[in-house]
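Key idea: predict the complex, not the pieces.
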Amino acid sequence: MADKSTTIDKLNVSNRYAVDQNKFEKEKHLFQKADLVSEQTRTTVSKVIYNEFDALFNPELSQQTPFAHIEEPINFDNKSISYFSSLGIIPSCGTKEQLLESKKRIESVSNDNYSIITEQQDLKDCLETIINLDNDLRHVIQSSNKFHKG
Amino acid sequence: MSSIAWLEILNWNETQLTDLKNVGYQYVLQGKYDIALKIYKALVTLNPNDNYNNKILGSIYLELNNPLEALNFYNQALKLDPDDAYTEMNRAKSLYLLGYHKQATQAMQKLSMSSNKKVAQEATSFLFIL
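Result:
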């Protein structure tokens, strides 16, 4: 844990969220008061306050990105494909021509239902995104695949 | 669940879905949320019952400062996995950003009692700013 006095100073000047200073003072007072009561109570109170202090002195906890606890979706069954996808390209989805064909098939679905049209648009956007992902690099890897397959 | 068999139309299976997930995640890591958004929107369309896709999409929307859409996908994710404490926390953050401070506080208070220490600490920390 970082030096607490430094952390408090940082909280005062640069924390992007306003820390409730009154609440901090109240907790500090309670903590000091805990010295006057029994060992058991002091331990219990200290434990509770320590946890709160711990959270307070780690303000970055409240600023975690929403991805902080989401793990990478690793495909352990097919490491080579995972390797290519780690480069940001998706050879398994087909060549540029195949992807354009897939897009045409998606477009050919005729439906005036709003949710279907939304799905259709989302899929088309995704296919266009895949097509536009570094085409040259995708071509190099597909050539490399053909070479390895003999 | 869509009435259209999109996977069949695309002639895709689990391989393509997994690759899309990986690629989308790589763009998340790079902070290219606009690209990741398009990939994960398609993934949710192709596989709406995948908790992972829904919570990632919620988080992308949260990063793109769209808490309303984020809330929608976090709700979907929690329907599929009601015990996912981190998704519950992100849902509470979305509520807070939408101005529902009371509901956000209630959710964070509940999470601050979690047996998962990391969740409890993060929720407690967040309560200080509410």
